[in-house]
Amino acid sequence: MPLTPFHVAIPVRHLEESRQFYADVLDCEEGRSSDEWVDFNLYGHQLVIHHDPNIGETNTLTLHHNAVDAKSVPVPHIGVVLEMEDWQRLANRLKERGVVFVIEPYIRFVGEPGEQATMFFLDPTGNALEFKSFKDIDAQLFAT
């Protein structure tokens, strides 16, 4: 079955602050929008940021963390699996733009099934984002 784009909607504290992050830091193309939400093209997937007035001016989301490969992985999180070249380009761009990583770009599960490049960071509201890649996505994505 061919992959189809996913759609995910997430809450944000400030629509304009988040709009700038997704457009300028992640280079997402903006789609439709209103005073309360904005659609973005996140590597071919539909990401929608929705203003949530309950988050407040100084609050960020509270995330749980689970240990994975001796790292503290934020939960929940969303992300995209990229081709390795695109993942490396994104990692370099994020470093150049001063993004603070929750988990710095690195290769995890080295030598094991599912070996992957991964990185985690937060948007301005505290939504956790993961971008990952595999040498061979088709063979390794669901490897056990």
From TrEMBL:
Coiled-coil intervals: none
Domain of life from the UniProt record: Bacteria
Pfam short name (any one): Glyoxalase
Domain VOC span(s) in chain numbering: 4-134
Entry-linked SUPFAM superfamilies: Glyoxalase/Bleomycin resistance protein/Dihydroxybiphenyl dioxygenase
Name the UniProt record assigns to this protein: Glyoxalase
Gene source species: Enterovibrio coralii
